[in-house]
Amino acid sequence: MTTAVGIETQDACVDFPIFDAKSRSLKKTVMGMVGGTIESGSRVPIIEALRDINLTLQHGARVGLVGHNGAGKSTLLRLLSGIYEPTRGTATIRGRVAPIFDLGVGMDPEISGLENIVVRGLFLGMTRKQMESRVDDIAEFTELGDFLRMPLRTYSTGMRVRLALGVVTSIDPEILLLDEGIGAVDAAFLEKSKRRLSALVDRAGLLVFASHSDEFLRELCDTAIWMEHGTIREHGPLEDVLASYRDARR
Amino acid sequence: MTQSAVTASRDWQRTTADLRNGWQQRQLWGHLGWQDIKQRYRRSVLGPIWISITMAVTAIALGILYAGLFGNELGVQLPYILVGFIIWNFISGCLAEGSEVFTSNVGLITHLPAPLSVHVYRLVWRQTLFFLHNLVVYVVMLVIFPQPLGWGSLLAFPAFGLLVVNGTWVALLLGIVTTRFRDLLPITQSIVQLAFFLTPIVWIYEDLQNSANPAIAERARIAELNPFLHFVEILRRPMLGQSFELRNWVVVLAITVVGWTVTLIAVRRYRARIAYWV
């Protein structure tokens, strides 16, 4: 790669069209064209999920995302990962992105834990060979033993989370985008996965981490972005942002 | 998965990049396609043979039925129906599953920044694997009812290649359109079913053309307007050792060019919208 890892957005907006049964229907759209507009309000309503996002994140950035539910944290992560291309403005993403928004996505209940390790890795942009060389390490971390040869559907929720965490923390991403949702594991295992998680973050060139847990944020991040109503309310050193976020909530 | 500028998300470069990057993730969709197949027979005793057996049973039943109805020899009617069926399974699979290719992958599309073409390649690859499974039945058929295969039968390879190339644009285009307009999904399903009857798969088109009744022969010509006929014919003729018909190939090549042109325009315009629409 010629350019360094980084993310840059300029006035990026994400607007969701809200289709109801009517606007999803081709018939209505065609009839509408023929008959001309009868209702003036027949346009598809739009939700502005993100507005005028200006961000420059470079290699080494460790950014936490705070904000209440629906403030646009997850949408921002999806914008930064390239899943949503901005409807207006631009977003430039340089580097291999590993988005981890949902531990279970890409896992197949019918295949064994071992096979799932490979599949989940492929989804995260790894090659089959890379994943096969990591299988032993992941197996050891998850402590699942012979269960790895069983189909995933036989696993308990906790076991699934272990497996997913094991895979996710084994990869080498250039840009790591984390959405919290790491729970349902016992305390001892959580301590172990924390260590692995910070090792992963150290390997990654760039981290953006959305979380409601100040403790987690302090552990992994040094700067933070406070999202509110789809815009960036504040962007600065972690403690400053956390402080003003907490003040505003009071 | 290296990504770069998203300045003008509707430009051609991004369109071809989607198709190319998707192709580079062969390991991913190759693996997923296999997994889809294995899923079908995971808990069954007969395993992979199941896929072919269900197809063979239907084809044999229809072969016997229509051989009786049309008064044809079983050795003619059965291979015709069987090969037609194998080809039709591929075509209808691309059409029917193509119209769900994005809506059935919502989780993956909204969680992973993979090129959209990955889902389409996975689908076409899965259909190709089904086709190869069904070839086992074809080979058994060749033993029981030998066909006059010759060098011309090698045309089956480019013919299948064309089916794959066309299946890809069809799935991409249908996927985009049905993601935006959800009521098209049941419509495509019924069109596929209707097309099965309109296309000479169970009825032998040449028999009708050579019919003693001039009115029937005249009407049989109308079947040529059906594009599916040409897709089935380019592959079925070499598989049954029949002669080469140029017009079938010309029609298919023309559809390939027009179809891909329309699809590329659609992908360029709506590629970035899919994640919003699902």
Automatic annotation (TrEMBL), chain A:
Keyword Transport among record annotations: yes
Keywords (A to Z) from UniProt: ATP-binding, Nucleotide-binding, Transport
SMART domains: AAA (SM00382)
Pfam families: ABC_tran
Gene Ontology molecular-function annotations: ABC-type transporter activity; ATP binding; ATP hydrolysis activity
GO CC, any one term: membrane
Superkingdom, taxonomy of origin: Bacteria
InterPro entries: AAA+_ATPase, ABC_transporter-like_ATP-bd, ABC_transpr_TagH-like, Bact_Polysacc_Export_ATP-bd, P-loop_NTPase
Residues covered by the ABC transporter domain: 21-250
PANTHER family per record: TEICHOIC ACIDS EXPORT ATP-BINDING PROTEIN TAGH (PTHR46743)
Similarity comment text for this entry: Belongs to the ABC transporter superfamily.
Descriptive protein name: ABC-2 type transport system ATP-binding protein
Species the sequence originates in: Klenkia soli
UniProtKB/TrEMBL annotation, chain B:
TM ranges: 45-66, 78-96, 129-149, 155-177, 184-205, 246-267
Location of this chain's protein in the cell: Cell membrane
Membrane topology summary: Multi-pass membrane protein
Keywords, in A-Z order: Cell membrane, Membrane, Transmembrane, Transmembrane helix, Transport
Gene Ontology cellular-component annotations: plasma membrane
GO biological process, one term: lipopolysaccharide transport
GO molecular function per UniProt: ABC-type transporter activity
Key word Zinc-finger present: no
ABC-2 type transporter transmembrane domain boundaries: 30-237
Family in the record: Belongs to the ABC-2 integral membrane protein family.
Protein name, as recorded: ABC-2 type transport system permease protein
Organism from which the protein derives: Klenkia soli
